[in-house]
Amino acid sequence: MADASSFTRQLAVLGGSADDILERVRVPAYLVGADGRIRWLNAAARDLVGNASGRQFLDVVVPQDRERASRAFADKILGRAESTDMRFELQLRGGGSTPCEISSMPIRAGTDRIVGVFGIATPPRTKRAKSRGQAELTPRQRETLMLLGEGASTEMIAERLGVARETARNHIRAVLRELGARSRLEAVVEAHARGLL
Fold this sequence. Notes:
- The protein is an alpha+beta fold.
- The longest helix is centred in the last third of the chain and has 15 residues, at about 165-180.
- A 5-stranded antiparallel sheet has the order 2-1-5-4-3, with helices on both faces.
- It contains 8 helices and 5 strands.
- Strand 3 and strand 4 form a beta hairpin.
């Protein structure tokens, strides 16, 4: 399994920036401090809920879901939950609301001090390549998707599958195409939403 430091090292080798990647990925992502204030939203999240930086995260959750969202947040901040996938209704930037699958996890400073929560939100989409849960992946593509879900790089996928790098790239492209995703992260989020991971 690839770890975060491996991702950071590979990104540095490639000359990439995590800030740039997270800002441009088309899946809403956010950071909330331990005080419950939104510290950062990427462009996709700002498109969804508006520029809520500095506000309490509960401000973007509909009133009927706030107690549940508050408990889930407290569980992460207090170290009682590592990662959760839950459905909450979020208030939209232009008014109204939409249900979103929220996948979040605590952010640790060092080995154990929890300083906030990172999460991604998957709102419903009007356009899907296939109906939810109906991805037609080959066995190799399923393996590739599992490895993408672990954060594996193209090189790692090629090594684990015992194939050439270009073959691994082809498997990755096929997975993205089948899931209607434009990035690896979007494919993983979509796979989670469809129950494939």
